[in-house]
Amino acid sequence: MSLLEVENLRTYFYTESGIVQAVDGVSFEVDRGETLGLVGESGAGKSVTVKSLLGLVNSPGKVVDGSVRFDGRDLTECSERELRREVRGSEISFVFQDPMTALNPVFTVGNQIAEIVEYHTDATESEAYDRAIELLDDVGIPDPEQRVDQYPHEFSGGMRQRVLIAMALSCNPKLIIADEPTTALDVTIQAQILDLFDEIQAKYDTAIVYVTHDLGVVREVCNRVAVMYLGKVVEHAPYEELYRNPKHPYTQSLLRSVVRPDERVDNLNPIEGTMPSAIDPPSGCRFRTRCPVAVDDCARIEPPRLDVGPDHDSACILYEEGYGTDEPRLHQRGKP
Ligand SMILES: Nc1ncnc2c1ncn2[C@@H]1O[C@H](COP(=O)(O)OP(=O)(O)OP(=O)(O)O)[C@@H](O)[C@H]1O
Ligand code: NI
């Protein structure tokens, strides 16, 4: 049994302009100690998906369907109090994009880490303080004995993100959910934080769900990847397999838009068009309006996630028998 099993998750926002189908039937699994990348363009539903796991979606949003089994327990059945007391921050913790909003400017970082430790464990105040120093050391902050008594504004952006990671690790979580944790950082610092995630994984054997719009980042940290488009998972595979053998036309486009060191910038192929609204998404396959290989049936049939390789599935009907091809690759552009 996997550590986390998300099945058919649906989260909608009931707005004045209509029902936003932000997450619409998403399923994935995360094993103990592995890193799953959740990838897709802005608006794909990545953040809403991870917030839904822990009851963090606020009105007008609502989880309307699906189950979230974590370590044998269905989190969608838990009360807010149970989630706060027994799950969030202890069993599962979050690292967000912007450390400044997650840190309280008027308390020292040591105080903030110790507070979490005290809330979730029976550590005394001085034990929690010592644990804070240890954690700052673990995430690569130099002079932790001095730094522990400093305030968030005394840290650089990269160091603040390390503090957040220390907070996330404070109760030895089984799962860390990281939502674009390096997006606000410059490239060098970003690489250091990605290395840190690798080290954490090796040392603590924590599972990670890593949300990003950047497949290059995924390559650094993820074992497996689920690619999202407009509220759905369109492809899922181990990273190496996805990278070498992408099957869904959307994934193929995404991979072509990744900047590679060996590629000149004018050779990049950004995906044409913009993602349609999640209020009135296209019928059938949601990617068909931008898909270079779409056929008439794509408007009629909602593609199921079809097995296309070992631990690899893709939601594209062109892999269904009878469509005459099992390779709907982009070079077919222009062919009938
Ligand atoms: N509070 C809200 N009210 C209405 N719609 C919302 C709300 N929050 C999110 N949405 C909608 O849900 C959809 C998914 O948003 P989400 O933030 O999950 O995207 P994302 O994949 O995380 O994108 P990004 O890469 O920009 O963070 C979008 O269409 C968004 O507009
Ligand atoms: Ni997001």
Description:
- With 336 residues, this protein is of the alpha/beta class.
- It has a single domain, classed as Rossmann fold, CATH 3.40.50.300.
- The chain has helices at residues 46-53, 80-87, 99-102, 109-120, 125-138, 144-147, 157-169, 187-204, 215-221, 239-244, 249-256, and strands at 4-15, 18-30, 35-39, 61-70, 73-74, 92-95, 175-179, 207-212, 224-229, 232-238, 306-309, 312-314.
- The chain has an eight-stranded mixed sheet with strand order 6-7-8-3-9-10-12-11, with helices on both faces. Strands 2-1-4-5 form a four-stranded antiparallel sheet.
- Nickel (II) ion binds at residues 46-47, 179.
- Nickel (II) ion (NI) binds next to helix 1.
Order of helices and strands: EEEHEEHEHHHHHEHEHEEHHEE
Instruction: Report the oligomer.
Output: single chain
Return the CATH architecture.
3-Layer(aba) Sandwich
Query: Low-confidence parts lasting 5 or more residues at pLDDT below 50?
Result: 329-336
Structural class: alpha/beta
Q: Number of folding domains?
A: 1
Shape, per Cα inertia axes: globular
Instruction: Quote the distance from N terminus to C terminus.
Output: 44 Å
Mean pLDDT: 89
CATH structural class: Alpha Beta
* Residues in helices, as a percent range: 25-40%
* C-alpha Rg (nearest Å): 21 Å
- Roughly what fraction of the amino acids lie in strands? 15-25%
Strand order of the largest sheet: 6-7-8-3-9-10-12-11
**Strand elements, count:** 12
SS field, number of helical segments:
11
Here the CATH topology equals: Rossmann fold
* Ligands, deduplicated: adenosine-5'-triphosphate, nickel (II) ion
> CATH homologous superfamily - what is it?
P-loop containing nucleotide triphosphate hydrolases
